[in-house]
């Protein structure tokens, strides 16, 4: 199986589709304030997480940086609602996108590069074609067009890892906040044993990258072109 990273068009004006949206999340794990690293947070999102039954969910409406103890307190509130195998890092976004949309959308919309939405017909085709790892969550986007199809965000769980040989500048673990980040290597490939067998969409741990299978690309392309770049990523 070949795999492809999702990327936005190099020239946004070269696209065929006029659709744009502005949206926020319902809930957040706050970013982390650290005396050494200053403020930081990741871009991971779990749109399928529903915190509407959590009594204290008002305190999760903001992403503003907080001290490590407060981040830990809020992570503990959220943890029971997130599958135990998935990381919950500072800056994690939870729940569906909520906002407004304008214009016409292609089968697949990638904007920014760490968010992927599909049109309702694309969601139906991915599911009826038997693709695996497709977790669609309806984006709550208000639009003036009543005939426009609904958009569904696909949850990209960070299941694969970059191959350690392509990471060249990993920082030592920060003693205050635990951060040990690295720069996204321009030349990168996936660690073979970490690639989830049979899944057609997944995220890459510690990065903002979303990877889809060749089968995913072939399936959505049956609905016509999308304003998306599929950049092959190899597995070693
Ligand atoms: Zn730190």
TrEMBL record:
Pfam families: Gmx_para_CXXCG. It comes from the Bacteria. InterPro entries: Gmx_para_CXXCG. NCBIfam families: gmx_para_CXXCG. This is Uncharacterized protein.
């Amino acid at each position: 199986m070949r795999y492809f990273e999702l990327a936005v068009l190099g020239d946004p004006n070269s696209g065929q589709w006029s659709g744009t949206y502005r949206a926020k999340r319902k809930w957040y794990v706050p970013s982390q304030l650290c005396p050494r690293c200053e403020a930081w947070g990741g871009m991971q999102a779990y749109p399928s997480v529903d915190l509407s039954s959590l009594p204290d969910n008002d305190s999760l409406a903001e992403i503003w940086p907080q001290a490590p103890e407060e981040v830990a307190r809020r992570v503990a509130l959220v943890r029971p609602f997130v599958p135990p195998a998935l990381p919950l890092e500072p800056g994690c976004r939870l729940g569906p996108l909520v906002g407004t949309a304008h214009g016409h959308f292609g089968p697949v919309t990638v904007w920014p590069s760490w968010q992927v939405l599909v049109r309702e017909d694309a969601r139906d085709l991915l599911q009826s074609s038997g693709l695996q790892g497709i977790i669609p969550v309806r984006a709550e986007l208000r639009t003036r067009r009543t005939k426009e199809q609904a958009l569904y965000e696909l949850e990209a769980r960070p299941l694969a890892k970059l191959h350690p040989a392509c990471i060249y500048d990993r920082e030592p673990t920060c003693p205050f906040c635990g951060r040990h980040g690295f720069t996204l290597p321009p030349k990168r490939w996936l660690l073979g044993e970490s690639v989830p067998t049979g899944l057609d969409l997944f995220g890459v741990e510690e990065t903002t990258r979303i990877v889809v299978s060749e089968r995913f690309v072939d399936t959505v392309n049956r609905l016509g072109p999308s304003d998306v770049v599929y950049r092959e990523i190899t597995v070693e």
